[in-house]
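Worked Example 4.2. Consider the chain below.
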Amino acid sequence: MIDLAIFIPACFAINLAFGPNNLLAITHGAQAGTGFALRAGMGRILAFAPMIAISAIGLGVILSASALVFTAIKILGAAYLVWLGIKLLRASASADLSDLKPGSLEFRSAFRSEMLVAVGNPKAILVFAAFFPQFVAVESYAQSYLILGGLFLAMEVVALMIYAIVGRFAARAASQRLHWFQRASGFGMIGFGLLLLLTPKPGNQALAV
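Applying the procedure from the previous section yields the following structure tokens:
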């Protein structure tokens, strides 16, 4: 039997952990509004769903055991985060962000960024591979993973909405200084990329995504 009284708060803490995807939600919320950030954030949901399935069939264990695969994904993910950060910095220097309106950002680009950031973080699969099994009922393995995965994705949407709202309020509070907010987001994304690059291959511990 799944102990939801423990799983839900522990899982939601993981969902709320400040990472590159949640930084994107704040940035998109500040630039183009809560609704835009929420729609773009569906990119990460579409990425996490198959990653949960991958962990369910045991490939997460392979990833955690393979230093080569983990390192390759880590380098690609870190490089993308750094590139995304540089792109944000360049945008802050060449545009007046106070003039941004919902829809002025390209939705496809924002959606793709959310998806690629999620896929490019190998720690996400390791979270699913190390955290979920602690709550899986062996007698109903597939059903348990389905329930746990569904709850995780639902809480991820809630966390996404929270960060998007935070970004929107931050934009309203500093509407004349959004270029500084953009720069902070850019440096933050670069920082996450470097941290990911420097992160050693974990063992059986759950990590924030």
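The chain has one domain: 16-198. The CA atoms of residues 34 and 165 lie 6 Å apart. Compare this with Example 4.1 before moving on.
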